[in-house]
Write a structure and sequence with these properties.
The complex is a heterodimer of chains A (about 1000) and B (about 260). Chain A is built from 31 helices and 40 strands. Chain A has about 1000 residues and is α+β, with helices and mostly antiparallel strands. In chain A, the strands form eight sheets. In chain A, strands 17-19-15-20-18-21-22 form a seven-stranded mixed β-sheet. A seven-stranded mixed β-sheet of chain A has the order 35-37-34-38-36-39-40, sandwiched between helices. In chain A, strands 3-1-2-5-4-6 form a six-stranded antiparallel β-sheet. In chain A, a hairpin with a 4-residue loop joins strand 10 and strand 11. The longest helix of chain A is centred in the last third of the chain and has 21 residues. In chain B, the strands form two sheets. In chain B, strands 2-1-3-4-11-10-9-6-7 form a nine-stranded mixed β-sheet. In chain B, helix 1 links the parallel strand 1 and strand 2. The radius of gyration of chain B is 17 Å and the shape is globular. Classes of the chains: A alpha+beta (about 1000), B alpha/beta (about 260). The interface between A and B is large, with 71 and 58 residues.
Chain lengths: ~1000, ~260
């Protein structure tokens, strides 16, 4: 053999062996170590006795073809900034400790996705280095006298998440590179189901993590009896994934008996029915594709989808939330022939950030840690993808502690001629994007079960961690292939992995795939793992055979791996082979239509909530400050600034507005086509406090609020559409299901009354957290997201007061009810009745306010929601740095609300407008018979002044109100987990 | 008249290329977005353009350090064409991640005019956070052709690594002495500041943007392409009917296009 150690470029030839190294980068001694300083500060707040002098290290363990010279070339070309860093290159066998110091290492568990490592492998190829098996890690070096127990606690309590990482203290050898998993010898597994009894069926479902109930298991048994064979393990898995609550929505699409009436398919009979009956021409595709599609301009449609990613985020907040966003972005890319994501939304529900440690349920992460991780996950994924995160909400309640909620939304821009997809027999099954590993196995079924104290241990395999740059490459390639017309259909690999993606695409045809063709991250995956892995950043295409070469070229040019793994066929069967053996041959009709429909029982929940005692006069100012500081109302600036909300240069009304960029926008306005002034507004409505008192009215308020928000910034309610996202406690409990029926019925009534269609939705109906025998359900939580066209973004409106001497006009009527209000909550009660929503009048108020904004009559507009008039007026005033004076005696009222109720009540369909005095007649003409009143004026002082017919109610300096509102959620100034 | 030809270079993870190209086109340029792979295949392509723009984003994921891989690739394979491009009068604009790459490449500040030697770094923000916010800038040098007579702008920025750190005291002194600093972060009184958040990242001497010896290369952390229109400004709704068509970032693109046209 003619072997040379190097080819002519000085690059090691392929037959040079790989060598393992640990590359460690440290900041130069004279550079400030901000990471270590932050960690040390947090450790002090935890009471850990750490001496000064903590320093941080970053490291990579890897194999490189060649020797130390190549490792150093990688370090110097890629990993080291010579102005900032010094580097050590060590053998993994060498002792990594530095003289006279202690060392703490945080390293990912084997098999956990390591996005940084993936990027290093890719980047190394750009340096013509062959680098493999990269594992990234973090280390801290502390003075020798440091208490090792304190360091260990620092690792366990602050830095590492046991679900995905391990902590090493004072190790004597380095961290080895990633090792291949032990090769599992191929063995086709059949499951004996044909003759199983009821107990055995239950055991099979439980042990196999199938999450199928007795009726469903019996249906599976019947099917295989009829086929006279036993299923293979992946046939059962595929059925379980496809029939999961996550994929099939079997509660909402099943039968529900409630108060003497059977509701057949609530989804169809309430939410989709409203859309069908409204039959709005701008709806281009509803409830069938990966997102809803509405018309935008002559050339484009808009797509909108909101997903939940609750359970993964409970276990590993950073990875769970990041992949939640990554998943919904792929929904956008998988809608029609692929829409370009142009804006993201996120809504979170957490336990209280200041929850005392003693109240933390066993096995749950502290809400502050969940919140930091979730925000960082969304931040890193969205920012890297280059998709602006423009709108969101955060809600706190103790019942979310064990089961936080993470809603990620994505809006896309779809060329109007790329809406329709189809799969034809003979098309190739093309898998593109990231490689497949053991990540996220059983995600769909995991999300369909309750969380419990052991979830972290048993489900860490379900943890998904994303790699945004992989998805960015995939997106770039996909959009090019779309424009070239190189494929006929596309969908994303989400929950259930290939089993769901190929299973769905092949539903009307059939498909056959060769699982050994799927590119793997490491050896050792079984055929079953390949089939159900939820590894991220993958999409499946149906490619006409004549375009195979062209589409592979497009992907290769973007450095995206793409592989033909099979072929669609007219067989009606879903077949998979592994190394020549048939491992699956499922009847697609049974898979998609064989799910038995169950009748679930629902009952009305007994409620006995009541109003609080009246607020004593004179305490209104104090109450306003407390409301502004309530976490649900307080400024979310700490989160908002971490999101890139301006990339793509479409941002018109930003999340924070006003001279100091502090005023909280009701909704975002985006102009997505560069050079065009046509835009859209996106906003949301969510208030679970209302659901504790009346889930039906909660739904109406959520719709009203979402629409108020988009109207307040200039959105046209006649060109608005909405999305539903139900997150509920287990609906096997009749009270929870009763709440759901009430909310669905109200969704129908609301959508019809406003003339606003639902275009997409998603539900998550198993949000319970169990410790021992105690189960905590989350409160019924309905998120309504709204998307409305803004015909000309130059007419958009913001909520900050613009100047002194203007009129303040309140639109809408204020009633006496306090149910679900923040005022009642702060006074220790839930409130007796949620304010009704006047469905005849509310849509007229939205239209009139929109007309006023579109005609330029309105200087500032803010909707009244949590905290009512007092909070809205305060936000407008300090948001604009302009004083305001209001007289409550002028408020249009229903019944006889007292001062506190007029000031802080949460009646629906209300706006506060700032208007030039000269425009009052024009505004008055538009509002005509609708309740409205000139409540007061803006002023040249810096106070918020409220009177009640000449009797003073409060006078509060704006600076104090602003401070009360800004402080609570500024997590940089309190202890918590380290930045990641 | 010459149509300015702009090459907008992207790599995996670049994400501001479309709006950057659009900003140049708004002022009459012909902008081509090209993957770095294509430029590596035919480096002479560079000489057919007047302006090279490196847009913002996370080229190659930034996991190894902002801009590192792109810079390394350019250093090892585009060194000569790039030197020639600048020497022959080409303009180079690096925004955010593109600025980070120019700094890693040694093209900025280029005190000793040796490509490949890094003199400053753009390190982790002192806040240790990625942050999106608008900042007020002072124009401290008018030597740079992108700047011209533009008024001191307010611009948005969005990054986690924007703290400028000079290699040593000598480099720090020469940045000022050699007139390389184009933009500084200033407070409400328009004084350069180290105060957060007016100086959002803790940058040494409040430096937000640099130019080279020729004045034809500009790198800056803020994103002028996101401040192209009047309604990009976060407080545009406070300006009533007086909202200008163009935003505070527009002059950088207009000046570059004008300069190219004036050369022939």
């Amino acid at each position: 053999m003619h072997a040379t150690a190097e080819d002519k470029d000085g690059r090691p030839a392929r037959d040079v062996p790989l060598s393992a190294f640990c590359i460690e980068v440290a900041l130069r001694e004279d550079r400030q170590d901000v990471v270590a300083a932050r960690v040390a500060a947090q450790a002090r707040e935890l009471g850990l006795p750490l001496p000064d002098g903590l320093r941080s290290r970053r490291g990579w363990s890897l194999r490189v073809r060649g020797g130390e010279r190549e490792a150093r070339r990688l370090a110097e070309g890629l990993l080291v900034d010579p102005v900032m860093h010094v580097v050590r290159v060590l053998s993994p066998d060498a002792d990594p400790r530095e003289h006279g110091s202690r060392r703490l290492e945080i390293v990912r568990l084997p098999g956990v996705m390591d996005p940084g490592a993936q990027s290093i492998v890719r980047a190394a190829t750009r340096l013509e280095l062959d680098v493999q098996d990269v594992r990234s890690w973090q280390a801290f070096v502390a003075p020798a006298g440091t208490d090792p127990a304190a360091l260990k606690r620092l690792g366990n309590e602050l830095l590492a998440n046991a679900a995905i990482e391990e902590v090493r203290l004072d190790p004597t050898t380095g961290i080895p590179p990633v090792a291949d998993l032990p090769e599992t010898p191929f063995r086709l597994v059949h499951v004996a189901i044909q003759r199983a009894g009821a107990a055995e069926l239950e055991r099979l479902s439980r042990d196999g993590c199938l999450a199928l109930d007795a009726t469903e298991m019996r249906a599976v048994q019947e099917h295989f009896r009829a086929e006279d064979r036993e299923p293979t393990d992946i046939e059962l898995e595929t059925i379980a994934q496809t029939w999961s609550e996550h994929c099939k929505h079997k509660t909402l699409t099943g039968l529900v008996e409630y108060e003497g009436r059977v509701h057949d398919n609530l989804l169809k009979s309430t939410i989709a029915r409203a859309t069908r009956e409204l039959d709005r021409p701008f709806c281009k595709s509803v409830f069938v594709d990966n997102a809803g599609v509405v018309a935008f301009d002559e050339k484009h449609h808009l797509t909108f989808k909101v997903e939940t990613h609750n359970h993964p985020s409970a276990i590993e907040p950073y990875g769970g939330a990041g992949t939640g966003l990554g998943g919904v972005l792929r929904d956008t890319l998988g809608t029609g022939l692929g829409a370009r994501p142009i804006a993201s939304t996120d809504v979170f529900c957490f336990g209280p950030a200041d929850l005392p440690a003693g109240k933390l349920p066993r096995g749950a992460l502290h809400p502050r840690r969940v919140m930091k991780g979730v925000v960082a996950g969304v931040r890193d994924y969205g920012n890297r993808m280059g998709i602006p995160t423009v709108n969101g909400a955060v809600c706190f309640d103790e019942r979310y502690t064990g089961n936080p909620l993470v809603y990620c939304g994505s809006i896309g821009l779809l060329p109007a001629d790329r809406l329709h997809k189809e799969v034809r027999p003979g098309d190739l099954v093309l898998l593109a994007g990231g490689r497949t590993g053991r990540d996220g196995i059983h995600g769909a079924t995991f999300s369909s079960q309750e969380l419990h104290e052991e979830s972290e241990k048993v489900s860490s395999g379900a943890v998904q961690i994303g790699n945004a740059i992989e998805e960015k490459r995939l997106m770039d390639a996909l959009l090019q292939a779309r424009d070239l017309g190189l494929y006929r259909a596309v969908t994303d690999c989400g929950a259930g992995g290939l089993s769901s993606a190929v299973g769905e695409m092949a539903a009307d045809t059939g498909a056959q795939v060769q699982l050994e063709r799927v590119p793997l991250k490491y050896h050792g995956l079984s055929y079953a793992e390949i089939w159900i892995s939820e590894a991220q950043e993958r999409m499946v295409f149906a490619v006409p055979p004549e375009h195979e070469a062209a589409i592979l070229r497009v992907f290769a040019a973007e450095d995206v791996e793409a592989t033909v793994i099979g072929r669609f066929e007219a067989s009606g069967r879903l077949r998979a082979d592994f190394r020549g053996t048939r491992v699956m041959d499922l009847d697609l009709r049974f898979l998609h239509e064989g799910l038995p429909r169950r009748t679930r029982q629902a009952v009305r929940r007994a409620r006995a909530t009541r109003d609080p005692a009246p607020l004593p006069a004179g305490r209104e100012g104090e109450m306003l400050r407390r409301l502004l500081g309530a976490p649900n109302i307080a400024s979310k600036a700490w989160i908002i600034h971490q999101y890139d909300h301006e990339v793509q240069a479409g941002s018109v009304v930003k999340p924070l507005v006003g001279p100091r960029r502090e005023g909280p926008s009701d909704a975002a306005v985006v102009a997505p086509v560069l050079g065009s002034r046509r835009g859209f507004a996106v906003g949301c409505g969510l208030d679970p406090c209302l659901g504790d008192v009346d889930p039906g009215r909660m739904a109406l308020h959520a719709i009203d609020e979402a629409l108020r928000n988009v109207v307040a910034v200039g959105g046209d309610p006649a060109q608005a559409s909405i999305l539903d996202n139900f997150s509920w406690g287990s609906c096997e409990r009749p009270e929870n299901l009763g709440d759901l029926v009430e909310a669905c019925l109200a969704c129908y009534a609301g959508a019809k009354a406003y003339g606003t269609p639902f275009i997409s939705g998603k539900d998550s109906l198993n949000n319970d957290y169990r410790v021992g025998d105690a189960v905590q359900s989350i409160p019924p939580t309905l998120l309504i997201s709204a998307l409305a066209i803004v015909p000309d973004v130059a007419q958009a409106c913001s909520m900050d007061l613009k100047g002194a001497g203007h009129e303040l006009v309140l639109v809408g009527e204020s009633g006496p009810e306090l149910g679900g209000s923040h005022l009642a909550r702060l006074l220790g009660e839930a409130g007796a009745e949620v304010p009704p929503v006047d469905l005849a009048r509310a849509p007229r108020i939205l239209s009139a306010v929109h007309a006023a904004i579109a005609r330029g009559l309105v200087l500032a507009c803010h909707d009244l929601s949590e905290g009512g008039l007092g909070v809205a007026a305060a936000e407008m005033a300090f948001g604009g740095g302009v004083g305001a004076e209001l007289d409550l005696a002028r408020l249009p009222v229903r019944g006889a609300p007292d001062v506190a109720r007029r000031l802080f009540g949460q009646s629906a369909s209300r706006f506060l407008l700032e208007v030039e005095p000269a425009q009052i007649p024009a505004l008055h003409a538009l509002l005509a018979d609708l309740p409205h009143a000139r409540l007061g004026r803006t002023a040249a002082h810096a106070d918020l002044v409220v009177t009640d017919g000449g009797r003073p109610v409060l006078r509060e300096p704006l600076a104090g109100l602003r401070a009360a509102w800004l402080a609570p959620l500024d997590l940089d100034h309190e202890h918590g987990e380290a930045a990641r | 008249m010459t149509t300015p030809a702009v090459l907008v270079l992207r790599a995996a993870g670049t994400n501001c290329e479309r709006e950057t190209a659009y900003a140049f086109e708004r002022f009459g340029a012909r902008a081509t977005i090209s993957h770095v792979n294509r430029l590596l295949e035919s480096p002479d392509e560079l000489q057919r353009h007047h302006v090279l723009a490196l847009p913002g984003g996370f080229a190659y994921g930034d996991d190894a350090g902002a801009g590192a891989v792109l810079a390394c690739e350019m250093r090892s394979r585009l060194n000569e064409p790039l030197r020639r491009f600048v020497a022959e009068g080409g303009l180079v604009l690096g925004i955010c991640n593109g600025f980070q790459a120019l700094v890693r490449l040694g093209l900025l500040p280029g005190l000793d005019d040796v490509l490949g030697v890094q003199e400053v770094s753009l390190a982790d923000n002192d806040s240790l956070k990625y942050e999106d916010r608008w900042v007020r800038l002072q124009v401290t040098s008018r030597r740079c052709v992108f700047v011209g007579d533009m008024p001191a702008p307010e611009l948005p920025l969005a990054h986690g690594e924007g703290k400028l750190v000079p290699r040593d005291a000598q480099v720090r002194a020469r940045l000022a002495a050699d007139d390389r600093v184009v933009f500084r972060y200033v407070d409400e009184q328009l004084h350069p500041t180290q105060h957060y958040p007016e100086n959002p990242n803790g940058s040494t001497d409040a430096i937000a943007g640099l130019t080279d010896r020729t004045g034809r290369v500009l790198g800056l952390m803020p994103h002028p392409e996101r401040a192209l229109f009047g309604y990009h400004h976060p407080a545009w709704t406070r300006q009533g009917a007086r909202v200008p068509d163009l935003g505070p970032g527009a002059p950088l693109f207009a000046n570059a296009c004008d300069w190219v046209r004036a050369q022939r």
